[in-house]
Amino acid sequence: MSDLKDVLDKIELTIGDITEEETDAIVNAANPSLLGGGGVDGAIHRAGGPEILEECKEIRRKYGKCLPGHAVITGGGNLKAKYVIHTVGPIWQGGIADEDNVLRNAYLNSLKLASQYGIKTISFPSISTGAYRFPVDRAAAIAIDTVANYLKEDSSIEKVRFILFDEDTYRQYERAKQSL
Ligand code: APR
Question: What is the whole-number distance in angstroms between the Cα of residue 39 and the centre of ligand 1?
């Protein structure tokens, strides 16, 4: 059981490109097909190379689509990161389709998978706040709260970084972290 100060020390926020991260695992904001897309998904597949897509296709063949809130793991291909955890966030529909819980589960299942693989350092993008249109302030609060509560219970993960792509998103996550 970690206390709040330990947890806060483990959560880092930065502005940058998640494909540049030197960490055990980076998290991809994927779609259920796992066959790539734009945004983070496109950047990771471009930088990581075809190996990642091949592993995603294999996962599709074995287990079918990745449902919203769920997570799967592949190697990192040409990335500096050893693994890519692909998770699917909710598409924002106005808050009438349990989007908050689906987003919570996307972070939670990514962290659980990381722990299962002995991953100690992991970097997240701001899941669902791009093409999926989830309000950034609301997503930031869910993301930070879910990660903080997980880190309180599971001390195996040593560092969680949020790699944000613009100032406004960064500020929303900073505000969410400060209100913990
Ligand atoms: N590094 C870090 N963050 C990034 C990067 C990057 N290289 N590229 C984009 N982002 C940011 C976006 O600015 C946004 O804040 O990641 C956040 C998530 O945006 P999206 O990538 O659009 O992800 P999401 O909203 O979850 O939508 C997922 O988009 O790319 C498709 O295949 C994907 O269908 C899926 C959908």
Answer: 4
